[in-house]
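Dataset card, provenance and construction

Sequences and ligand SMILES were collected as paired inputs. For each pair, a complete structure of the chain with the small molecule in place was predicted and serialized as structure tokens. The example below shows a pair involving NAP. Curators did not alter the output after generation; any descriptive sentences attached to a record were derived from the structure itself.
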Amino acid sequence: MHRAWSLETTGNQHGRVAIVTGANTGLGYETALALAGKGARVTLACRDHDKAETARRRMLLSHPSAQIDVRLIDTGDLDSVRRFADAFTRDHARLDLLINNAGIMITPYFQTAQGFEGQLGVNYLGHFLLTGLLLPLMTRTPGARVLSLYSLAAGWGRIRFDDLHFARKYDPTQAYAQSKLACLMFGLELDKRLRAAGHEAKSVAAHPGFSRSDLSRHLSVPIRAALWAVGPWLLQSGADGALPTLYGALGEDIRGGEAIGPDGRKQRKGAPAVVEPFAEALDQAKRERLWAVSEESCGIGYGF
Ligand SMILES: NC(=O)c1ccc[n+]([C@@H]2O[C@H](COP(=O)([O-])OP(=O)(O)OC[C@H]3O[C@@H](n4cnc5c(N)ncnc54)[C@H](OP(=O)(O)O)[C@@H]3O)[C@@H](O)[C@H]2O)c1
């Protein structure tokens, strides 16, 4: 009989170092809390110092001896991402887990500091650069893993190579779907390239189904009210929503290159399991094109 992966039976993570972006609330908070509870040294990589510090104190109430640091990063500003990566690399000799979690959903149109469409910039391009800058540290760390958060919304997204930043007509839902499809394609492609280059580090993509968090903050008031009403049936808890990410990060049977999500009906809720990635993310030509565009946009060469 298939037995679901469980956090409780996962061994302690003492001596391991993790970064979780967007860890002050929602799924990032739950992920960081669980990793810190297992003994990993966790950096809460957040854009607001006070919110992050409040989250750190709350985590310490559950795990008083946990090692939790706060560092500032705005994934919507590549200069901020570079400052974060420089300082982290200076201060740490290893990085075992990079959890690319920070995200925004269905926002009004805005541009990031470098002029990218906001959701693509914050959710994907900032993490593409962060991962590239931290990869030298991770490839020196035995058993290191990168986790990329995607979404069921990726299933109806496409990468608009002809108008990546919605210069023509902005569609906030399609922009979210594009950004999350990009995260999934990156998670899979990174693993393929790590294998080809002979690195031991792994890359995994994970999605939380429908989980309670602050992600709906940019939706209209009526839609938020409706979500609140159906929440108990539709949504799983934030702690359960973090389990696909934690399975990808800690599961001993993870080989790299998997997509992970809840195993229930339509992957909305349930225990974490390996799932089939959306077909669009398996298009190798599009993955390579996205990779090349991302390197150019971020001014980084991964070297493979
Ligand atoms: N909840 C779900 O059902 C669901 C479903 C599919 C995928 N996801 C994915 O799960 C991830 C976590 O989302 P969530 O549901 O936990 O949402 P959330 O509660 O809104 O948390 C999002 C986190 O990202 C941070 N963030 C936003 N913009 C940032 C930026 N520019 N720089 C740094 N941090 C930034 C937020 O910080 P502030 O608090 O300072 O804004 C917050 O800590 C996202 O990638 C999302 O796409 C969630």
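Derived descriptions for this record:
The longest strand covers residues 41-46.
The two ends are 40 Å apart (CA to CA).
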